[in-house]
Amino acid sequence: MALTIGLTGGIASGKSTVTKMIRELGIPVIDADQIARDVVKVGEEAYKQIIQTFGQNILQENGEIDRAKLGAIVFHNEQERKKLNAIVHPAVRRRMLAEKEAYVQKGAKTVVLDIPLLFESELTHLIDKIIVVYVDDDVQLERLMKRNGFSKEEALARIRAQMPLREKVKKADAVIDNNGTIEETKQQLLQIFKRWNAL
Ligand SMILES: CC(C)(COP(=O)(O)OP(=O)(O)OC[C@H]1O[C@@H](n2cnc3c(N)ncnc32)[C@H](O)[C@@H]1O)[C@@H](O)C(=O)NCCC(=O)NCCS
Ligand SMILES: Nc1ncnc2c1ncn2[C@@H]1O[C@H](COP(=O)(O)OP(=O)(O)OP(=O)(O)O)[C@@H](O)[C@H]1O
User: Fold this and answer.
1) For 127-186, how does the pLDDT look when each residue is reduced to its tens digit (9 = 90+)?
2) Of 63, 138, 178, 181, which one has the greatest count of Cβ atoms within 10 A?
3) Ligand 2 in contact with 184 (CB < 6 A)?
4) Alpha carbon distance 192, 165 (integer Å)
5) CB-based contacts of 43: which residues, under 8 Å, 6+ apart?
6) Phi and psi angles of residue 179, each rounded to the nearest 5 degrees, phi first
7) pLDDT tens-place string over residues 37-70
8) What DSSP state is assigned to residue 3?
9) Which domains does the chain have, with CATH numbers?
10) Which ligand minimizes its atom distance to the CA of 68?
């Protein structure tokens, strides 16, 4: 039986930074954000449902979804966000499960699922162990504004659309504190993987 680890945290808390380290260790990572992009490509079922729900206005000229426009709607309105989640999440769940099974079939000892909304979307039943990547509020805000070029208000809207990071920490089997240097983060990751015999 493969060990399935769920990696989660808050927006800009450092999940991608940690998944890069995990991949370098040779462990496969399935990225929910990437799958969420794939399932809304032109012609996919979720793409059609999004247009039916949000109208043609959220499309770019080439027909692809304008993520900035859709983000501006859903991160300022919980009702609209729930509608989008209800369209996208089932498709993401199905594809993640299929990808996980494929890795297990190929003999992977450990598989990591990087799911920003692991707790919010009740996906914990797919997972044996949960790692939460944690940063302090001020560090999260600063890194998010810097990485995405967001104003404080835009960044806070996204942070508030998620379960507070401190709540996630309480539900974790292990926590990586990513306030420090990248090297400190890597050491914590290695210790957890050794403890769980995941390597
Ligand atoms: C609203 C969209 C179009 C904005 O796209 P954009 O390219 O600006 O952001 P991206 O997809 O890279 O997400 C960045 C981060 O925002 C956060 N986030 C994304 N969607 C949500 C959501 N529905 N609720 C809360 N936080 C979210 C996550 O931390 C994610 O890592 C996009 O995020 C989306 O389609 N969201 C719905 C699907 C979803 O829930 N994805 C998250 C993982 S399944
Ligand atoms: N320990 C660190 N020290 C300094 N900067 C860091 C550290 N960890 C991450 N960062 C930077 O902070 C930003 C957020 O990190 P990252 O992109 O890994 O977060 P994330 O959790 O994957 O975000 P999202 O939920 O949006 O996908 C990035 O610009 C990254 O380079």
Assistant:
1) 999 999 999 999 999 999 999 999 999 999 999 999 999 999 999 999 999 999 999 999
2) 178
3) no
4) 19
5) none
6) -75, -25
7) 999 999 999 999 999 999 999 999 999 999 999 9
8) E
9) 3-195 (3.40.50.300)
10) 1
- Strands 29-31 vs 3-9: parallel, antiparallel or unpaired: unpaired
Give distance in angstroms: CA of 18 to centre of ligand 2: 9
pTM over 0.90: yes
Residue 98 CA, ligand 2 centroid: distance in Å? 28
- Does residue 15 have its Cβ closer than 6 Å to ligand 2? yes
**25 in Cβ contact with 193 (< 8 Å):** yes
Q: Would you say the CB of residue 9 lies under 6 angstroms from ligand 2?
A: yes
Q: Is the CB of 30 under 6 A from ligand 1?
A: no
**Any atom of ligand 1 within 6 Å of the Cβ of 88:** yes
Complex ipTM value = 0.95
At 163 the pLDDT is: 95
**What pLDDT is attached to residue 121?**
83
> Phi and psi dihedrals of 65, rounded to 5?
-70, 135
Percent of the chain with pLDDT over 70: 100
CA of 31 to the centre of ligand 1 (A): 12
Q: CB 13: neighbour CB atoms within 10 A? A: 27
Ligand 2 mean position to 143 CA, how many Å? 7
Contact predicate 107/1, CB 8 Å: no
